[in-house]
Every structure is written in structure tokens, then in C-alpha cells.
Amino acid sequence: MHSRLANLAPEWDSLTDLIRVGGRLRKLADSDPEQIHPIVLDPKHNLTKLLIKEFDERLLHPGTERLSAEMRRQYWILRGRQAIKHHQINCPSCQRWRAQPRVPQMADLPPERLRLLCPPFYSTGVDCFGPYVVKIGRRNEKRWGLILKCLTTRAVHIELLNSMDADAFLLALCRFIARRGKPKEIRSDCGTNFRGAERELREAFSNMEPELQTRLADYQIDFKFNPPSAPHFGGIWEREVRSIKNALQVAVGSQATTEDILSTVLVEVEGILNSKPLGYATSDVADIDPVTPNLLLMGRCMKSEDRKQTQQVHQQPANSQS
């Protein structure tokens, strides 16, 4: 006969009229009879469920193994782990402590990301990063970087700013328009939630926000700000800012360089970012080269051999500065 109760060698306790677990440890010195012969309980009985609930609350909702070990010192529940797991599944406190974060469903892409029939930089995202220290003669000055990100082709354009005011930004925008064309719309953070930016960067951009909106209207460019305290709205260019900072840390480090070297390094970083594949690069030899932003901008890919000469140009002055 296959029975879980028969395998426990049960014994009848005449004092309490309960069934206990048998065994061969009766002659163990200084032992507790309650632990050697625990009470056998039915897992489906209401009393068993109440005991499991009491132990679970007393032990502050531990795991299944801990609760099973504590209860086995007094009670032997048939199929005890299954009964304890069933209680923990229905226990609100256990569910609250063991709840896993649910990944929210991604929203639809904004219209700026879907300008498929428009030229590059038709919809552009703008962000600032820095400051960086440059050497001019015997003095050190601060410079900031300006990233302009195409929201459709993922192309990147980087400019160097001498100051954080509206005039410096408009001059950089004029250079950008002369080289890439006039964008139809520009999106940016509202200036108070720049990730990793300095306080003066946030304050300067916040102060020039009304003036920018007025003066950009002359260019017939729609300047849109993301909602406050929502940096994820600009995640497409915030991630590129991180890549630029990592590249500058590797190429320049913390040393103060000349403005020409910093500008050259930023342009090379721009070429590296624009050479990243837009899709997954397979290992099949029959597949064509992946599409990159440089391929959409220049009609050809920029290979690493094309940048060897420019890398050697700025490495020599950089070493001399150190």
C-alpha cells in the first residue's frame, strides 16, 4: 500500500488523541518529544491552513524552506511544501514582498521618428554636454558641446560652443544649417532635467529658453520642449551624449587641450557614431553591409583606414600638451 502516512510509522498519542510521527529516537537523551514525534496534519484541513498562516506572519513571511523547517519542529504536514506554497501564492503580504517589477509596454513612436520620406535632420533633437577645459595661451577656459541628433536616420552632428547663451547656440545652428540643411522641427529638453549636466549648464539653458523660441521663429523652425522631469522623452540623444563622453574620456581624458584638438576630436567622435550600424550585423558572408548613418549622409561608408591620418594629426599635439 502506497501511503504517505504509512511511511511515517504513525503512532497514536493517547494523551492528546493525536497522530504523531514514529521513529527510533525515543531513547535519545535530553531530547524534546515534540520535535522527535511531531503531530501529523492533513494539508487540506482548515486548522492546518490557520497554523501555516500564523507561522508565516510570526516569521515575517519567509521563504518556503524556512517556514517548512520551523513548522516541522512541531507539526508534520503531509505534502507540507505544496501546502505552504499554496498559502504564499494567496497571501497578499507574500505577494507584495516577492513581486517582480513589470516592464511597461512601449508607447507608439512619435511622428518625428517616422519621417521616412524626409531628408536627414528634418526632425532633430538637441542637447548640450560639458563643460570641458581648453588651454588658450596661459589661461584655461570652458567649452561646451552641442549634439544635434536626427530622429529618423540616427545621424549625429556635433558642434563646439564657446558659451552657454542664445548667440552661441544660434551661431552653431547656422553652421549646422549650412552643412546639413535647415530642419523643420527641433526637440530638446526643457533645461531643468539634463542628465549629467552641471548646474550652470541647466541654468543657462533655462534662461535662454524664451529667447530661443522667439529668435528661432525667424528661421521657421518649430522648437519643441519635452515635458519637465521626463528625460526618457529624449533618450535617443541622451544615449549618444553618454557615448560622446566615453569617447572623449578615452581620447583626451582629464587633461586640458587646445580648442583645435577638442574640436577635431569631437568631429572624429561624430564620424565614429555615424559609422555604427542601424541594424543587426549578421555573420553570413552573403549578407550585404549594414546600413549606417554615414551611408545615408554621404552615400558611402567611412572605414577605419580613412581616419588613420586624422588620428595621427591630433595625437602628436595631444602628447606634446601632456
Can you characterise this structure?
By secondary structure, this protein is α/β, with parallel strands linked by helices. The chain has two domains: 92 residues, Endonuclease III, domain 1 (Orthogonal Bundle), CATH 1.10.340; 201 residues, Ribonuclease H-like superfamily/Ribonuclease H (Nucleotidyltransferase, domain 5). Helices cover 39% and strands 17% of the residues. It has twelve helices and ten strands. The strands form three sheets. Strands 5, 6, 7, 8, 9 and 10 form a six-stranded mixed sheet that branches. Strand 5 and strand 6 form a beta hairpin. Helix 3 crosses helix 4 and helix 10 packs antiparallel against helix 12. The protein is elongated, with a radius of gyration of 34 Å. The termini are far apart. The relative contact order is 0.08. The C terminus is likely disordered.
